[in-house]
Design a protein that fits this description.
Layout lengths: L13 E6 L8 E6 L6 E6 L6 E2 L15 E5 L8 H11 L4 E2 L7 E2 L4 E3 L15 H13 L18 E2 L2 E2 L1 E8 L5 E8 L28 H17 L9 E8 L3 H18 L11 E10 L9 H21 L4 E3 L2 E3 L2 H5 L9
Helix pairs in contact: 1-2, 4-5
Length: about 350
């Protein structure tokens, strides 16, 4: 296997994107599909305005032990309907919680979370639906093991914005000394900024998510002027939300997975300022496939906790860099980081 530096480096996980294809639409859905047999999962919600589905099922006190997919979607709460398409796809394959004597008697539990992108394409009523969710899970299933994950303005990241700049999907991974793989996937859509307004440096670069390079002062000044013009032409988005999935091939209990999800929020906080506001719905899922045992000892989880947060920060920066061009239309004017900083942005891609 050649590492892709993406969440799909965790063996068994697949990612698929689908975009709502209709006039005035700028939204979509992303599905993280588990291997057969499902994964241990948990969720931690820190934003004040979340839109979620089936997250209570992941509480370690509750009955569901494993899940088969996670849905990240645009369309605000309307877009959560995309999870219905994923449920139907799983049911057809008899994947889910067994509730009867026949193998077909299953209830797929599909946790989902949404970002606010309503109206970004001009049509407020354009939202992902069950068909969008089915298309995304079919794309995930067809992608193959360890497939490259498309990033940028795709899937749930199609119409996302962060601090007036275009957002998107980003991903990253690492292998710990123990041989355990940890990966992350982020949908960047924040009320806060992912870039330091003092100098144009992506906040994540201060925490090792790329080289700490400072754009030329004249380039930064021009970027600030362009961004100010764009903000005047765009109504401030009332709601936002950054979503993340952190995954590992380690054996984790549901309580340990919950700890991973909680600590991974530190990665968002390093890459976006401010975070977890009342108009954000910041949500992190943690998945564990259980292919590798944790090293012995009470502190063995620390390596995964540290890596999860670091990878989320890297994925935030990659989401910011993945959009080659800005977003201009009836929904607003949102330049991309590469558009503002040009060749200077390449420093953070290394």
């Amino acid at each position: 296997m050649t590492p892709q530096d993406s969440i799909t480096d965790v063996t068994g996980l697949r990612v698929g994107h689908a975009r709502l294809d209709r006039p005035g639409a700028l939204t979509g859905t992303t599905v993280v599909l588990a291997p057969e047999g499902g994964v241990v999962a948990a969720v931690d919600v820190r934003g004040g305005g979340p839109g979620t589905r089936e997250t209570d099922a992941l509480d370690p006190r509750n009955v569901v032990q494993r899940i088969d997919a996670v849905v990240l979607t645009g369309g605000s709460a309307y877009g959560l309907d995309s999870a219905s398409g994923v449920m139907a796809w799983l049911e057809e394959r008899h994947r889910g919680v067994r509730v009867g004597p026949d193998p077909s008697h299953v209830v797929p539990v599909v946790p989902a979370a949404c970002v606010f992108d309503l109206g970004r394409g001009g049509d407020f009523t354009a939202r992902p639906d069950a068909a969008t969710g089915r298309a995304a899970v079919e794309a995930a299933a067809a992608s193959g093991d360890h497939a490259r994950v498309e990033t940028g303005a795709v899937g749930a990241g199609t119409g996302t914005v962060a601090g007036g700049l275009r957002g998107g999907v980003g991903t990253a991974s690492t292998v710990l000394e123990s041989g355990i793989t940890v990966g992350a996937l982020v949908v960047l859509n924040a009320a806060g900024a992912a870039v330091d307004p003092a100098n144009g440096v992506p906040y994540g670069a201060y925490y090792g998510a790329g080289p700490l390079a400072f754009p030329d002062a004249s380039v930064h000044e021009a970027a600030l002027r362009r961004l100010a013009e764009a903000r005047k032409a765009s109504a401030p988005p009332p709601l936002n939300t950054t979503l993340a999935v952190v995954a590992t091939d380690a054996v984790l209990t549901r309580a340990q997975a919950l700890k991973v999800a909680g600590t991974a929020h530190d990665g968002i906080a390093r890459g976006v300022r401010p975070v977890h506001l009342m108009n954000d719905g910041d949500t992190v899922f943690a998945l564990a496939t259980g292919a590798r045992d944790l090293p012995e000892g009470p502190l063995a989880l620390n390596g995964i906790l540290t890596a999860g947060a670091d990878l989320v920060t890297r994925a935030v920066v990659r989401a910011l860099l993945a959009a080659p061009g800005g977003l201009r239309g009836p929904g607003g004017d949102f330049p991309s980081y590469r558009e503002l900083y040009g060749p200077e942005a390449e420093a953070y891609s290394r």
